[in-house]
């Protein structure tokens, strides 16, 4: 971590106190911190009572074999029942669960809880007909349409862990995830809408299935396809149309309760090596923490709030704060299929106005983009319904935070900057909207029930005013249980740096008041528009191109996306200078291998890479070049002239 960055951060004089009426009626008050501190497990016990259990647990936490935790031991429940059935049983069947807004204007649908229940039951019956049983894995590769949520809940209902793969990922990425978790069924759509045009998904599934067939014939038995755009799709004997199979099924389905530790889903995320990690979340603890945090951090009032989380369901934020948390809390949510700029740059604000959204949860990269587009765009819409704003995914710069609060929130609306990860399953560090005097740029302190700290290299807690590594010191209910099929990597990645502590991979600082400032990843993971990408994964993609001999990838600062991917590539001698389109060719290749989000912003063809004597690439120096800084200390390089070659190449290229 850079010392100047550290010193500059955390000197923030602005404070935003909670609005008086919010504070007076807040779901979580300052007492919650005390209750949780007095008896953390009793606190979590009470949070688990938000859910409906078929069999109660007899032990809150079994931590006898760390870091393998068991929460709510002996308890049994069904996640889909908790998200849907119980609300209908309680008389809220006619309440809207989702205001779905398709990308084409006017293409909308309101789905009530009773409709959601019927569709989930039909889908569960359909999956049963396809042979899906408790424990079987199902991959979901979909656009943002109601059937995606239905598919997830149908899997949960059957106890069949789902793995949702972001629709922007490539066929290769989908295939590797399907193979890693052994999915028998893939649920997909012909396509979705992107900026006014249908964008196909099914061809990528066909390609992925061909790949899985080559490696593990017969693994994927069925592909269930929703017709969304009406595009032509090729048909194979594995394919079944959703409207043929699901629509005719009975609208009732008796669900079974599963053990609290029954796997709910696997979500793949980038790690420090090229191979994505399958983060495993289980049922009882995960749903408890998703429901508790969604209710507490967003101060949710289910009777009156209209909540909108803009994340794609293909990311963990979509899982915890678009599906599981909100539905467990009987929320009315907006679900939007499209992009912020189609058909115009005020689309989001129009949706806020039309549906009178009260709580908005989005990412700094989107906020910075809106800032760039100008205040006059949101000013055209009535945003007065908003009473709470949330941010997630990367550090939010104080200026973006203040802009969000002022321009979108009208100056009175609290902003909760929520820190968490795919691995943590739920928000861990955040202001409480009715309690905290929030500082722009700081995620403040751990929420009640969570033990977070900043430690130094030795694992000792740092004093206020100092920086170090962000850790969690006590287990929490929505913690990842392991990496799918790889207990060893789970222990090594998260639990072996310091005894008894979860290492999050982020650097952080405690300011003079002890409030936390998350600085970003300290490992080889980049954060581009709030999406985690591993440098190694992109390097491997580049090296798999026949013209490439070696590649080094760094994340460099970018005003809009937080970080951007910058690649240095050495070509094979047989490739000569690579040809006039080499940069485009390589960018497209990365998009094909991983997905468009991983496309390098910049690719520099270089003769050499800076390496230490032991052969480790010195990314720090490459970052200096990419960010146009004077190149730092080169004394540990095996050949110190290399940087001159690279810098010279860079300046002649720009
Ligand atoms: C970063 C997304 C600063 C962090 C929920 C973390 C943040 C990674 C914040 C997890 C925040 C997330 N402030 N940094 N409020 N929220 N991050 O797994 O580096 O996609 O480790 O989960 O995003 O990304 P993931």
Automatic annotation (TrEMBL):
Spans through the membrane: none
User: For binding ATP, which residues are annotated in this chain's numbering?
Assistant: 393-395, 417-422, 506, 521, 532
EC assignment: 6.2.1.1
Molecular function (GO) terms listed? acetate-CoA ligase activity
Please state what class of enzyme this protein is: ligase
For Mg(2+), which residues are the binding ones? 543, 545, 548
Top-rank taxon of the source lineage equals Bacteria
Q: Which residues form the AMP-binding enzyme C-terminal domain?
A: 537-616
Q: Residue ranges of the Acetyl-coenzyme A synthetase N-terminal domain?
A: 31-83
- Which cofactors does it use? Mg(2+)
Q: Where is the AMP-dependent synthetase/ligase domain?
A: 90-476
* Record's signal peptide: none
Note the InterPro entries from the entry: Ac_CoA_lig (IPR011904), ACAS_N (IPR032387), AMP-bd_C (IPR025110), AMP-bd_C_sf (IPR045851), AMP-binding_CS (IPR020845), AMP-dep_synth/lig_dom (IPR000873), ANL_N_sf (IPR042099)
**Catalyzed reactions per annotation:** acetate + ATP + CoA = acetyl-CoA + AMP + diphosphate
Q: Which SUPFAM superfamilies match?
A: Acetyl-CoA synthetase-like
Q: Which residues bind CoA?
A: 194-197, 317, 529
Please give the function described in this protein's UniProt entry.
Catalyzes the conversion of acetate into acetyl-CoA (AcCoA), an essential intermediate at the junction of anabolic and catabolic pathways. AcsA undergoes a two-step reaction. In the first half reaction, AcsA combines acetate with ATP to form acetyl-adenylate (AcAMP) intermediate. In the second half reaction, it can then transfer the acetyl group from AcAMP to the sulfhydryl group of CoA, forming the product AcCoA.
Q: Give the family this protein belongs to, as stated in its UniProt record.
A: Belongs to the ATP-dependent AMP-binding enzyme family.
Which protein is depicted?
Answer: Acetyl-coenzyme A synthetase
Please report the organism this UniProt entry assigns to the protein: Streptomyces lanatus
